[in-house]
Design goal:
single chain, 434 Repressor (Amino-terminal Domain), 9 helices, 0% strand, Lambda_DNA-bd_dom_sf, Cro/C1-type_HTH, HTH cro/C1-type domain-containing protein
């Protein structure tokens, strides 16, 4: 653990103990604590402007995307299309409106969302620009690459199909 200059490990542990609640709550207390937290969150959210809500939702999507692309595990549900659909929902855009905003055909957008087509570099850059650089093009690109890496690593059908194109394989295997 990295400890800033001026703090000993002992002081850091003491601070953590002072800050963290270490007592176990009864089931009734836990229900009440959850209710209070939900009420506080609802109050905070109701006081937010539409702009603040959009910022919070964009950041949440960005952090979810970042967390997923940095994980080693692959999840079939969390595709480029899934995150693109989430993006459209949180910015409250219809597909035809959004397609016009990034200058692609609505059919192409539908194919991207439904994972029937892989986005090229221009699409991921347009997504970055559309989000005003909130969600970097590299995040969208790494999402696509994670999906490709999974397919390449696990597809027996792909290997079988490509095997017929390879002749004179090496006689050694490491």
């Amino acid at each position: 653990m990295y400890v800033k200059k001026g703090f000993s490990k002992r002081k850091v542990k003491e601070l953590a103990n002072d800050i963290l609640m270490t007592e176990k709550l009864s089931p009734q207390q836990e229900v009440e604590a959850r209710r209070q937290l939900a009420a506080a969150r609802k109050k905070t959210q109701s006081a937010m402007t539409e702009r603040e809500r959009l910022i919070a939702n964009l950041l949440q999507l960005k952090f979810r995307l970042e967390e997923y692309i940095n994980k080693k595990e692959y999840d079939e549900q969390l595709t480029f299309g899934y995150f693109l659909k989430e993006y459209l929902q949180l910015i409250h855009k219809k597909r035809n409106e959004f397609a016009a905003e990034i200058d692609i055909h609505e059919t192409m957008l539908s194919q991207l969302i439904n994972n029937h087509r892989t986005p090229n570099e221009s699409i991921v850059i347009r997504l970055e620009l559309h989000s005003n650089n909130t969600i970097p093009a590299t995040y969208w690109y790494r999402l696509v690459e994670k999906q490709k890496e999974h397919i390449i690593g696990t597809s027996k059908e792909l290997r079988k199909a490509e095997k017929k194109f390879v002749r004179n394989r090496l006689s050694v295997s490491i």
